[in-house]
Specification:
The chain is an alpha/beta fold. Helix content is about 45%, strand content about 15%. The protein has 13 helices and eleven strands. The strands form three sheets. A seven-stranded mixed beta sheet has the order 1-2-9-6-5-3-4, with helices on both faces. It has a two-stranded antiparallel ribbon with strand order 7-8. A two-stranded antiparallel sheet has the order 10-11.
Length: about 375
């Protein structure tokens, strides 16, 4: 057995979902220990590793070696990087690879990569043999703090993002904080928007901590591990309270209604906007919109904007390169993303930093006039 000892910097977050409970380990050197961690938790001795072309050259060999050292035989599939990989076509490819590897129910399907690989692989793991064990080894900040936790899996279709999928919780999440050193600064910042989001939802002290410590989070070390662990804990709390999003899990969508509309308006072109950047602009808009409705102070919106700007995230629609469609078209995208009930929209609004709430009676006319003001 692999006998590398855990570092004292390591953090464990347990997601207490009864029969579906699992551990999230966060810390340095976890890829080297992955085999040992999996072998102590799962009975099977076979694994299929799914990854992408950016991650494979950097981390696939280390993961494979660690599995082998723990007596787990693995095969791998390397897919193209990028959002387009979350497709029916690649789903077939992943299912086929898992079956070819003769992965059975107690064996593991392992996602090694960002949210794209995690969502696609988790979906395949949820449907092959009606569900096989699934291990997330998230390698982007966004996937470590958000997509690898909570069990939402899926692919995109021509009708929109994430429209086909299943809930399938992982059996283990191994977030190796070292691998983030090879992530581009832009992708790191985009993931950071989701970290800040947890503070803005209901943890004002965490937001204040980020305002003071963000540089250390970006440079690595204990503050980075702390921020990832706090984010995973926050996500776990929400997921445990509402696993299938019948209510409070919707709070995780803070900034996402505006953000998704901007992603659609830029045709999901990552050269112009990536998800976390849309969320950053969306969170500022959500705070400003709340202030406009006299629910929160405009100072809070300023404070949110100042912090996100300081770390280098875009905060205004005008920060997006290229032309944006008019407010009416953005409004259509919002209406499509949401169920509009007699002219009312469900929105995540706020009473201030860390005081977000689900509002299900927001008049779409108010949203449109706000958008016109922001994007004349
Ligand atoms: N399931 C959920 O609950 C949930 C939540 C949020 C987002 N998502 C999904 O997650 C996806 C976005 O995830 P993402 O931002 O991780 O995108 P991604 O998987 O495309 O990764 C971003 C880029 O970084 C590269 N990369 C990843 N790790 C790297 C590393 N360590 N070093 C160098 N390059 C690396 C990838 O190859 C890719 O080019 C979207 O599809 C979104 O819908 C899902
Ligand atoms: Zn998000």
């Amino acid at each position: 057995m692999n006998a590398i000892t855990p570092s004292s910097a390591e953090r464990l977050v347990r997601v207490p979902l009864g029969e579906r409970a699992y551990d999230i380990l966060i810390g340095p050197g976890l890829i080297a220990r992955a085999g040992a961690e999996i072998a102590t938790r799962l009975k099977g001795r076979r694994a299929a590793v799914i990854t992408d072309e950016n991650v494979a050259p950097r981390y696939l060999d280390a993961l494979t070696a660690s599995l082998e050292a723990a007596g787990i035989q693995s095969s791998s599939l390397v897919l193209p990087a990028g959002e387009k990989t979350k497709s029916f076509e690649h789903l077939i490819e992943v299912c086929d690879a898992v079956l070819t590897a003769r992965v059975e129910r107690n064996d593991a399907v392992i996602a090694l990569g960002g949210g794209v690989i995690g969502d696609l692989t988790g979906f395949a793991a949820g449907i092959v043999r009606r569900g096989v064990r699934f291990v997330q080894v998230p390698t982007s900040l966004l996937s470590q703090v958000d997509s690898s936790v909570g069990g939402k899996t899926g692919i995109n279709t021509r009708h929109g993002k994430n429209l086909v999928g299943v809930f399938h919780q992982p059996d283990l999440v191994l977030a190796d904080s070292d691998v983030l050193n090879t992530l581009s600064e832009r992708e790191f910042r985009a993931g950071y928007a989701e970290v800040a989001k947890y503070g803005l939802i209901d943890k004002p002290d965490f937001f204040a901590w980020l305002e003071s410590n963000w540089k250390d989070v970006f440079s690595g070390g204990p503050a980075r591990i702390e921020a990832i662990a706090a984010s995973c804990q926050a996500k776990s709390d929400v997921v445990v309270a509402d696993e299938r999003e019948n209510g409070p899990r919707a709070l995780l969508n803070l900034g996402h209604t505006f953000g998704h509309a901007l992603e659609a308006a830029t045709a999901y072109d990552s050269r112009r906007l990536v998800h976390g950047e849309g969320v950053s602009i969306g969170m500022v808009l959500a705070h400003e919109f709340s202030a406009r409705l006299n629910l929160a102070s405009p100072d809070d919106a300023k404070r949110v904007e100042t912090h996100l700007k300081t770390v280098g995230l875009p905060t205004r629609m005008g920060d997006i390169p290229g032309e944006l469609p008019p407010a009416e078209v953005l409004m259509d995208a919002i209406a499509q993303d949401k169920k509009v009930k007699s002219g009312k929209l469900t929105f995540i609004l706020t009473h201030g930093i860390g005081q977000s709430f689900v509002a299900d009676d927001v008049p779409s006319s108010e949203v449109l006039s706000f958008l016109k003001e922001k994007h004349p």
